[in-house]
Design brief:
By secondary structure, the protein is α+β, with helices and mostly antiparallel strands. It has one domain: Alpha-Beta Plaits, CATH 3.30.70.120. 20% of the residues lie in helices and 39% in strands. The strands form two sheets. Strands 2-3-1-6 form a four-stranded antiparallel beta sheet, covered by helices on one side. It has a two-stranded antiparallel sheet with strand order 4-5. Helix 1 runs antiparallel to helix 2. The two termini are 17 Å apart.
Length: 107
């Protein structure tokens, strides 16, 4: 058995969760916050048999898309102060971890 842990952008998570549920997977949703942009994320946990891991990854991949976003830069005031210029960064998509499950108990 495996635990698929997927970290998705807030914008992508609803469609991915709906598709996973429709495909018969049971998910647990956690609200999380990313470190770089401090933006809201959704972390989903899906416990599956080994042979179904790729199906979960494929569904997440289909619904989690990276995109460009402008982010303001910061600079310190003082000598040589220049106005901030926005920087384009890639956001979204998904980060997926697949973990081995040693034991599973359902009460």
């Amino acid at each position: 058995m495996k635990m698929v842990l997927g970290i998705l952008n807030n914008d992508d998570a609803p469609a991915a969760m709906q598709a996973l549920t429709k495909a018969g997977f049971f998910i647990t949703k956690l609200s999380t916050t990313g470190g770089f942009l401090r933006a809201g994320n959704v972390t989903i946990l899906v416990g599956v048999e080994d042979e179904k891991v790729q199906a979960v990854i494929d569904i997440i991949h289909e619904h989690a898309h990276s995109r460009s976003q402008l982010m303001p830069t910061t600079s310190e005031a003082g000598v040589g102060f220049f106005p901030t210029m926005p920087v384009q960064v890639r956001v979204g998509g998904a980060t997926i971890f697949v973990l081995d499950v040693d034991q599973f108990h359902k009460f």
